[in-house]
Amino acid sequence: MSKGTLFVISAPSGAGKSTLVERIRCIFPDVLYSISCTTRSPRAGETDGVDYYFVQRERFLAMVAAGELLEWKEVHGNLYGTPARPVTDVLATGGRMILDIDVQGAGEVFKRVPSSVGIFISVPDMAVLEERLRRRGTETEASIRTRIGNAEEEMAQGRAFRYQIVNDDLETAVAELASVIEKESGPCKAGSTPEISRL
Fold it and tell me: How far apart are CA 1 and CA 4, in angstroms?
């Protein structure tokens, strides 16, 4: 049976990871995106099964007990986790998938799926990161300080990933990420997108 590829992409907040992932999904439409589950309520515009799987706390804890999550954590009283079945099903059919996750969660996924391809997105320096966070206009001063502090720790852990891409210029970073995906799993596989399992 052919085996697929799981790309685990992590970055500090403000490094531009979400934008890179969106661009890559346009270039490689056959690359599926792992949808996390959470116990928090949907925000305006969010759709169950598209943005997250929104589940009750009891259901989430049952999934933890049954070993149905590749990784999970609690953030501000809400639980977040990566369902294992959609990932394993895609990989078993030779498909490929992107998992967008923080560095702590990535470490857990690497243990469960040792063949995962870790890609860490970084920034040229902390000054650039701070500028991007401030440009958002959505963060308080305290939040910016916290995110920068976390980013310093995450940047240090980024060396454990197989690939490191510095997002200094967006187009260059997109090209580098696309190159990694092609190197590890081949070019776009038109017409061969596997069906993703739902919760």
Answer: 10
Residue 98 or 15, more confident: 98
Q: What pLDDT score was predicted for residue 1?
A: 36
Give the closest residue to 15 by CA, choosing from 128, 146, 151, 123. Answer: 123
Give the separation between CA 188 and CA 176, rounded to whole angstroms: 15
* Residue 9: other Cβ atoms inside 10 A: 24
- Token look-up 């852990």 returns 157
Contact criterion met (CB below 8 Å) for 115 and 184: no
Q: What angle do CA 82, 27, 101 make, to 5 degrees?
A: 20
How far CA 114 is from CA of 14, 118, 161, in Å, comes to 28, 10, 12
Q: How far apart are the first and last CA of the chain?
A: 24
Span 16-25, pLDDT tens digits: 898 999 999 9
pLDDT recorded at residue 124: 78
